[in-house]
Write a sequence for this structure.
């Protein structure tokens, strides 16, 4: 069970992810809009600007703008290559920054387009399958790291999302060992 602290840490990462800056290109003219403390616009069709991902997602979903830069895109082939590298090597390989959140975001976006465009159907499911396989392969390695004193380079290879899990697992395992062996009673 993920406790409140871990859930809060994962939600903080998701918040940071949605507040990263991305470049968008406007697909049509867009008037100035008041967002309370901020204003965006006006923009002309073809304008490229930087904005928070959360806002870019809304504009993209409405067909107003398209995310051009700042958000990695992964295909099922990309995830297959990552999976093969994880399975083929004993150590843990570094992942792109915010990998899990990026793939999750991409799958959510794909599911919306798959509903509108049947020819795109299935790619989000392929991504989900490979993502689960990557998570399982890496989870085995994270558990092994939690059982030992890993080198800093091994911990640096963990994604931010995985570091939350690693910290929790290593604490649970350390406490369990201390209690079983009696070291925790000194």
């Amino acid at each position: 069970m993920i406790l409140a602290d871990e859930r809060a840490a994962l939600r903080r990462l998701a918040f940071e992810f949605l507040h990263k800056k991305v470049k968008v290109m406007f697909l049509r003219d867009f008037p100035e809009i008041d967002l309370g403390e901020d204003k965006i616009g006006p923009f002309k069709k073809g304008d490229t600007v930087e904005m928070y991902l959360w806002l870019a997602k809304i504009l993209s979903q409405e067909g107003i703008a398209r995310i051009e830069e700042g958000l990695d895109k992964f295909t099922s082939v990309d995830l297959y290559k990552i999976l093969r590298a994880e399975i083929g090597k004993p150590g843990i390989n570094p992942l792109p920054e915010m990998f899990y959140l990026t793939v999750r975001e991409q799958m959510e976006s794909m599911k919306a387009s798959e509903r509108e465009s049947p020819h795109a159907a299935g790619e989000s499911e392929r991504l989900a399958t490979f993502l689960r396989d990557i998570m399982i392969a890496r989870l085995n390695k994270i558990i092994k790291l939690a059982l030992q004193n890993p080198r800093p380079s091994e911990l640096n290879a963990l994604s931010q999302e995985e570091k939350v899990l690693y910290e929790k697992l290593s604490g649970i395992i350390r406490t369990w060992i201390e209690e079983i062996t009696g070291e925790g009673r000194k």
About this structure: Residues 123-146 form the longest helix (24 residues). The domain at 71-185 is CATH 1.20.58.1030 (Methane Monooxygenase Hydroxylase; Chain G, domain 1). The first strand starts at residue 21 and ends at 26. The beta strands are 21-26, 33-34, 39-40, 48-52, 65-69.
